[in-house]
Fold this protein.
Amino acid sequence: MTLAAPVRPLADRMRPRSLDEFLGQEHLLGPGRALRRSIEAGHPHSMVLWGPPGTGKTTLARMIAAASGARFITLSAVMSGVKDIRAAVEEAQGLRAQGQPTVLFVDEAHRFNKAQQDAFLPYVEDGTLLFIGATTENPSFELNNALLSRVRTYVLRALNREALKGLLQSALTDSERGLGASGLSIEPEALDQLVQLADGDARRGLTLLEVAADLAEAGVIGTETLQEAAASGMRRFDKGGDAFYDQISALHKAVRGSDPDAALYWYCRMLDGGCDPLYIARRAVRMASEDIGNADPRGLQVALNAWDAQERLGSPEGELAIAHAIVYLASVPKSNAVYSAYNAAMEAARRNGSLEVPLHLRNAATRLMKELGYGEEYRYAHDEPEGYAAGEDYFPEDMPPQRFYQPVSRGLEAKIRDRFERLRYLDRQSGWHRRR
């Protein structure tokens, strides 16, 4: 009995066959673009393709190999090691002796360690290999500078709604590679939902379409069929990856920019993608101190209360409390004066070394300490006019007084600023200066 050959997945069958069929990357492959010209001329160069899943990185690498008449060798950084790299190099050296170039495609290139990445360098340098790495992570963080200096980096974009919709409709109508021979159709609402679930990922969209096609009744894919096929529609979100840090950055900047609506959107995006709410709660505490500070000290307490609510109650009650905190932080006056002062004071502490505490600021806990002058000439602020020891100096003797904290004229800090202006006036009027 002869077994039938397995049917290739729809996502594989629908790979673009030419640059004109390549969707969503017009900024790289549109007419006249440099990358397209080099591919069409058959003179490509080593490169890194950086972009989210399902944007065509592998397909593009295969096209480059075909256009240049090169042998296509692929390695997965998840499964391969230095031994596999050496075997690929030996094969490439043999082909080079026969006059045939080699494209070495490395999927998940960011997963190779430094030693593995270094193993490519001499062969990329001397032209033995045309190196094409694919990564979903920022190459500047994940790849060695030595390797990056020998390649060009191209950024692929997630497919927009129009590109995805066109691809899915083509898959439904294409009788040669797609589902056209089956006579299937899809309801307009289901198509819109499928585009949304695909979330910029062509492979995901085609895979969901193929599963839905198997579940469809009466030759029509409706929203219920699609929901059954999808099971869950998690958005792109990779803890520790670029999407993670990009989204928390967007959330933080929206809070700093006093846009509660955008901040709430990014918060929900992260939750929808599976982020731990406690992580966001911790970051909200940071926002409260870094970006609001003394302009509204209640922000810190609101953030801490939200963190506590999440730990006590879990979801969904705790998530609502965090949303409460994020909206509050985005809505109140902003000041980074404390944050800037902290950084400046830390720099001064590191720069000046271990300066002695002046005697008048030391605590005289014993008779000997008193005899040595500890606490002598210290002025108790509560006994002074206005509760302020005008002209007093609290810095080390070998360090000139500095002003790290500069309150802004917003929120509560406006009142703090006014108070400091009054105190500075008292300092100027004071005839008592320890060392100024």
